[in-house]
Amino acid sequence: MMLVFSSIAKDITELFIFSIGSSKVKELLLIIATYKNDTMKTDLHKTIKELSEIYDEDSQDTFITIYINKNSGLKHLKKRENTCYSLLKGKEQKNFKKTMEEIKEFLKKTQEDNIAIFASHKNNFFEHVLLSVELNTLLIVDTSPYIRPLARIQDEWESFTLVLISSNYAKIFSVSLGKVDHKKTLSKDIMNKHKKGGWSQARFQRLRKGAIHAFFLEVKEALEKIADQQIILAGPGPEKIQFRDMLPNHFKEKIIEVIDVDIN
Hints:
The chain is of the alpha+beta class. The chain has 2 domains: 3-17 and 41-155, eRF1 domain 1 (Translation, Eukaryotic Peptide Chain Release Factor Subunit 1, Chain A); 158-260, Nucleotidyltransferase, domain 5 (2-Layer Sandwich). 39% of the residues lie in helices and 24% in strands. The chain contains 8 helices and 10 strands. The strands form 2 sheets. Strands 1-5-2-3-4 form a 5-stranded antiparallel beta sheet, with helices on one face. The longest helix is centred in the last third of the chain and has 26 residues, at 201-226. The termini are far apart.
């Protein structure tokens, strides 16, 4: 028997399904502008695989799965906890009570808002996943962890590499499952204006162009070690186009969007 208690809200398939487009990418650029390195990033694929192999050997409903946003879902969770407790009997009810105590103690200590928790007191099991998207408040009691929402998140969020670039500065980000991971920052001191006297204007422009080209080569080398199957280029002025044009064809084919945006 599976006991499922979910808040009445939008289905998760309608929440944060990432479809590439300028408006979405610009929203993501705003996120990146204020991002913080996440030191607790989760390998979601590995986690899903591990959870899929766990079950109660006695086929008892001893595993509790909770998906929750702490800012909006705690009241819903309490109601579902009470309903679920009243439906369980005997050992399953006792396990439910002890497991929920462990879960609530964990929720008091964590500072994160969006969390998935998989726990069973009987099986001495407790696992949590920090989510970068908000899901419906969900409480499920079953013989094994309920991982379908995690699997759907993995399927619905596309991964890509974002390159913010100007003539002398570049940042490379990897974006996956809504999480932004800063991979590389490169910069180079390149003169922007020709001072009167000394070099001719033409010579200055040749040297400056060569310096920019050399910098773009450094960025390309860094990108070769990082790039996903999809790449987005962003930055001010024509530099991002110049950088794109110098890339080999196998990289150009990966570029799905070029966006005009301030480097800062």
